[in-house]
Each structure stands twice: as structure tokens, then as C-alpha cells.
Amino acid sequence: MPPKACIVVLNWNGARDTIACLGSLRVALPPSVAVLVVDNGSTDGSPERIREAFPDIEMLCLPRNLDYAAGNNAGFRRAMEMQAEMVVFLNNDTMAEGDFCTPLIRVLEGDPEVGIAVSKICYFHDPSRIWYAGGEARLSTGLVRHVGIRRKDGAEFSRPGPTGYATGCCLAMRCRDFRRAGGFDEEFGMYAEDVDLSLRVKAMGLRIEYVPSSKILHRVSSSLGGNTIEKFCRKNSALFRLFRKHRAWGAMFLYPLLLPLRLVFGALGEALAAARPGIMPGGKSDER
């Protein structure tokens, strides 16, 4: 019988994180949900280590690193071959808290106007603090940020409802909607492709739904290790691509002007995060 949903977990030289993620999924995942690991051209022996830990796991091995967008698109094509009704894209540096998948599936099944369902995401090293509780994207000024980032979890972050964009860290869609939207734009590579997908889904007349009853924990920004300069360059390059693609000319002008101010506030946020026991520095709105 085809799975109700297929969870696509993208791995690149991250076997330890991926194995931990798969272990958390095994605890409470319903039998109607399949898991697919897409190895994105790893060079560290990841496929062998993952298969040793989970010999029955479905795995797609790509010949080289295609980056986030193309790697996940390849996973989606395999999910379609498996005849899954829905696809869930999940970062490998996450841990599921219980059955995070069923609330997402129920929202998509229950409301045809929802195009993307997205989880509440908290820091792995401090599960009481928010990393993502919705997204805000104001292309007029170039503001793209997570709602609630670094704040203490509470009632205000536990109310479901529409949000501006879904983070690619964990989002669920009907396969037919993802295909209709054209999938992830592979020109983005790693950053801003989730914002772009969300904007295209909203242009289809569908909405993005924040589902806080689905919760995962995130080891923030494992994908590029400690290379802060590379993250900064890739992030900003992707944002300018986003602004150009969506003809956000005001953002093209204002974003560079406001960037120094945002860097100051970002540095303050980093300092506050580092000062809190258990919180790792990092976690800007669109870091992986």
C-alpha cells in the first residue's frame, strides 16, 4: 500500500545527525508514513553508516552534492514513485518530539486551502526556547525573519494559524501541490528557497499554516559548520535573488541600507543567546 506521506531527510556528510534524527522518528512514527534518506553526494561514508544503523531504511544516493533545493527535489521525485500522497521535508539535524507528522497530515487533509503545514521548532539545546513559530516576509523592505526566535516558548506561540512563510527545516505539502508549484527553485541552492516556495504557494491561492501541535527540535545551523562568512555570503546572495525574482525592487534598495542595523541587532541576539545556558549561538531566521 502506498504511504500516506513520505518524510524526506537530506544528508550530506552528516551521518551522526541523520542517525539521531531517524532514531527519533522511529519512536512514534505512524506506519502509514515512510522515511526516505537522500544522500547528497557524501564523501564521509555516510550511506554505509546510515544503512548499518537502519538496514531497512529507504535511501536514494545522489552522485554529487546538489545543494538543498535540488537534493530535496530529487527526494520528492522518489516520493512520487512511491505514490505518497504527501511529502514532508525534514532537516537531518532535527529531532522529532513524539509523532510530529500526524498533526501536519491532519491539517492538509482537513483544509484544502492549506498549501503548506509547518511545525513549531525549538532549539535542541534548549527546548523551552523558540527557533521558529511562524515566518514574516515583507518584501517591500526586505525583512525576512522567524517569529519568536530565541524567545521562551509559551501560549502566544502555541496558537495555530496562517503565517507568512514556512521554513524548509520542516514543512509538509500535498505532492500534487508541490508539483504544481514547481518544487524548490534550484537556483537558490540552500537559502531563501523556502521563502520563495511559500510565496509561490500563496500565489496559487493557498495559505501557509503554522501547526504548533507538531514540534521538532533543531540543532541550529549544522549544515555549514562554523563557517560564518560563508553563511553570511550565501544567505545575502539568496535574498537578493529572492528580491529580483519577485520584483521586490524596494527591498533591493532598502536591504543594503538597513543591513548594518540588522547586523547590530543580530549580534546582540547572538550575544544574548550565548549568555543563556544551553543555547548555542546562531539561529538567524533562515539558517539551516
Structural overview:
This protein is an alpha/beta fold. The chain has one domain: Spore Coat Polysaccharide Biosynthesis Protein SpsA, Chain A. 38% of the residues lie in helices and 26% in strands. It contains eight helices and twelve strands. It has helices spanning 15-28, 46-53, 67-81, 101-110, 175-181, 193-203, 228-245, 249-275; strands at residues 5-11, 33-40, 58-62, 86-91, 94-96, 114-123, 126-132, 135-138, 143-146, 161-163, 170-174, 207-218. Strands 1, 2, 3, 4, 5, 6, 7, 10, 11 and 12 form a ten-stranded mixed beta sheet that branches. A two-stranded antiparallel sheet has the order 8-9. Strand 1, helix 1 (15-28) and strand 2 form a beta-alpha-beta unit. Helix 1 packs parallel to helix 2 (46-53). The model is unreliable at 277-288 (pLDDT under 50).
User: How many helical elements?
Assistant: 8
Ends distance: 34 Å
Mean pLDDT: 88
Q: Tell me the fraction of residues in β-strands, as a range.
A: 25-35%
Helix content: 25-40%
Low-confidence stretches: 277-288
Q: Outline, from the CA principal axes?
A: globular
Largest sheet: 10 strands, mixed
Q: How many domains, in number, for the residues?
A: 1
Structural class: alpha/beta
* CATH architectural type: Alpha-Beta Complex
What is the fourth-level CATH superfamily? Answer: Spore Coat Polysaccharide Biosynthesis Protein SpsA, Chain A
Encode the helix/strand succession as letters.
EHEHEHEEHEEEEEEHHEHH
* Gyration radius, in Å: 18 Å
Number of strands: 12
The top-level CATH class is Alpha Beta
Fill in the CATH topology: Spore Coat Polysaccharide Biosynthesis Protein SpsA, Chain A
